[in-house]
Sequence to fold (103 residues):
Amino acid sequence: MKFFSSILIGCALFSGVAHASSSQAWNEQRQQMLKACLAASQFKDAHARGKPAEFDDQVGMSALLVEGVYPQKHMQQRSGTELCLYDRQHQRAFVSEWNPEAK
Fold:
């Protein structure tokens, strides 16, 4: 009985640590995604717009909108938006111009 109690206490302690670790790991993953998406963007003063969309682990991707200012002279400091897709497994970011109003 004492052995069984020790196992239950150990499991309870381990599960508490696992929850704390997964929350910390989740925050670290989001910071990596933000850093990768901002680096992949060509915008000046790039920043995240809103919260990321997290897809299922089978897809393994997260999506984030990034806003900033086009660096090209001919764009005359015009602001824009890019959609960043972040591959969580390979920690790589891919961006594309995002303009949902364009036809």
In short: Helices lie at 2-40. Residues 53 and 63 are 5 Å apart (CA to CA). The beta strands are 44-54, 61-69, 79-87, 92-97. The first helix runs from residue 2 to 40.
